[in-house]
Amino acid sequence: TFQVDMRKTADDFLPMVFPKDENKRIRLGIPEDYNIDDYILKLCDRYSYIQGQFELIGFSQIVKLLSKHKEIELALVKKLDTSLDNPRDIPDWNLIDESTGLTGTHEELSALSK
User: Fold this and answer.
1) What is the pTM assigned to this prediction?
2) Do 56 and 95 contact (CB within 8 A), yes or no?
3) b/e for 33-49, b at 16 or more Cβ within 10 A?
4) Looking at the predicted structure, is the pLDDT value of residue 109 above 90?
C-alpha cells in the first residue's frame, strides 16, 4: 500500500513500486534481465494503463474511482512486445469509403453484391 501525491506523474510513480532488490524481484517472478522499462502500471479490474509524463489525477479512470470514493489499485504488468504486432496484408475492400472509413447502409451493400 502506498500513499501518493496525485500530482505525481505516472513515470515518477513507477520507480516507487518497481522492486530494486534482486531477492524481491525473484519472489515476484521478475526475470533478472528485465528492468523498469519493461513494465507498466495497469488499473486493476479495468483495461486502462497508466504511463507517461501525465499527473495521476489526469487519468479519467482514476478520477472516476476517486469520485466514487473507491481505492485505486494498480498492478505492475509486463509491457507487450510490439515487435510481434505485425499487421496482416488486408485486401482492399471497395465497400469502405476511403474518406470516412465507413460502409454504406445495409441496402447499399446488398445492392452492390447483386
Assistant:
1) 0.63
2) no
3) eeeeeebbbbbeeeeeb
4) no
Cα separation, 50 vs 65, whole angstroms: 14
Distances (CA, A) of 63 to 59, 69, 78, 102: 6, 10, 24, 33
What's the pLDDT at 111?
57
Q: Round to whole Å and give the CA distance between 4 and 18.
A: 15
SS3 for 27-87, per residue? HHCCCCCCCHHHEEEEECCCCCEECCCCEHHHCHHHHHHHHCCCCCCEEEEECCCHHHCCC
CB-CB neighbours of 13 under 10 Å: 20
